[in-house]
Amino acid sequence: MNLPMTLTWLRIAAIPLLVIVFLFTPVEFARPAAAWIFGLASLTDFLDGYLARRWNQQSAFGAFLDPVADKLIVAVALVLLVFTDGDLPIVIATAVIIGREVFVSALREWMAGRGISAAVKVSSLGKLKTTAQMFAILFLLYHFPLFGLIDVHAIGYWLLMVAALLTFVSGAQYARAAVVAVKQAEAESQARGN
Asked: For residue 81, what are the contacts with CB-CB under 8 A and spacing of at least 6?
């Protein structure tokens, strides 16, 4: 196993640690510690892809496992936040983010089965959405004012709303790209049949 794959597995291994620390330690320790765990796990998300490309250690299994690890830790962190901070906007944002991830994953799988998966590649808006949601979750997990001055919880709250909006828009873009690709594939198939 190479280092990029090890980092991906470490991100998955961080999930139960995140849950245990968040739920079963005193709150004044739990929130900052959970934020650190999530932040370090998010950093491995950047590093594993970067190192895999730089060292030419990309693999089909790594390409599959990396987004799974991302989606798992994000979903678990959001559920923890709903459990503790779950006002209606956070619940709705969580439902939008998790729902979009399920939808896009299923759409990619379906498109791959039809041989037209290139139409639903990661977009720049999707990357922006991921960045916004990672910082939102990090700040919401941390919860307490930073240096006694900066209300990171409020910053995280509004970043989560932005992330949910970007999530919805990028999901719609994926759906539109899929419809166009399917229509184009069907037209090409009919043209070959004639």
From this structure: 90, 94, 137, 140, 141
